[in-house]
Structures are given as structure tokens and as C-alpha cells.
Amino acid sequence: MKRVKAANKHGTIVSYDLNYRPSLWKSIGGLKKAQEVNREIAKYVDVMIGNEEDFTASLGFEVKGADHNLSHIETDAFKQMIETGGEGVQKLQGRGDHLRRVITATKNDWSAILWHDGKFCESANIPKLEILDRVGGGDSFASGLAIWVPAIQRSA
User: Fold this and answer.
1) pTM, rounded to two decimals
2) Alpha carbons 26 and 119: distance in angstroms, whole number
3) How many independent structural domains does the chain possess?
4) Which domain holds residue 12?
């Protein structure tokens, strides 16, 4: 938390990749504590990255029409959740989300959306994308987003 506050204080653009892992929080308060900590961190974040599960688990956001397993999400409902956000995260400059529907361990439907400067940018939807290894998919999305956002800002 100290580093996030210090970076924010000195004008550094702070990005934060949400990632809730129950086993990491189990001994220190579980889901409730994770949401409390993430909402505090969010106050100092400029760009928040995650998928639909990350936003709901890590911050307690609700996506209208989503089932408990998040097996199907209406993109418009997710956009509404991103735009309205929640208490303590309204100052975000951008919110990025990789929308992934798992078909099998090696096949996923994949797309992404980014909310920036009050507008959405959407990627192409790639159905049944063959994946060699799902580990790092969110990290690769975050890397691409880190390059994409400054390019959007320069073109604006």
C-alpha cells in the first residue's frame, strides 16, 4: 500500500491488475478482507485491469444478468458496471477487461474492452481461440494495455 500511495503522490500513473485467489486470503479474512484491501488500493489507482470475475470478487461489483459462475456475460451489462464502478474507484482514468469464456482448457472465446476518457474501445471477438497455456493470459493483456493507453492519449 505504501508504494501505491507514494507513486500516486508523485504523479506516476498507477495500474493495478485485480486478481483474487481465495487461498491467499483464507487465513487473513477471506473475500471480505480482500474486497476491503482492494477498495482501499483503488483510491490510488489510475488504470484498473481485470476480468469480470476479478471485478466482482476483488471489489464486490455486480454485473447485472451474470450467473454465479459468470458463464455468460452481456457485454453491455459489463460496460455499465465498468462505467458506474463503485465507491472509491470513480477517479479511475481507465478500466480494462479481458472477456474470456472458457470452453475447454485449450479453447476460449476471447475479447477485450477498455473504458478510457468516458468512451469504450472494443477488440475483435475471437471465438474458440486455441491457447497453448492459459497462465499469463491476463499479464499479456495488461502488457498490451500498457502500450495501448498512451497511444490512445496521444491520438486524442
Assistant:
1) 0.73
2) 37
3) 1
4) 2-155
Residue 99: give its domain's CATH number. 3.40.1190.20
Q: What does the alpha-carbon distance between residue 13 and residue 54 come to, in Å, rounded to a whole number?
A: 21
- Is 57 within 8 Å of 66 (Cβ atoms)? no
Cα–Cα distance between 88 and 29 in angstroms, integer?
21
Residue stretches of the chain with pLDDT short of 50: none
pLDDT in the model for residue 89 = 57
For 73, left (φ over 0), alpha (ψ -120 to 50), or beta?
beta
pLDDT digits (tens, 9 = 90+) for 48-76: 887 777 888 888 877 676 666 555 656 77
> Do the beta carbons of residue 97 and residue 85 sit within 8 Å?
no
**Count of Cβ atoms closer than 10 Å to residue 7 Cβ:** 16
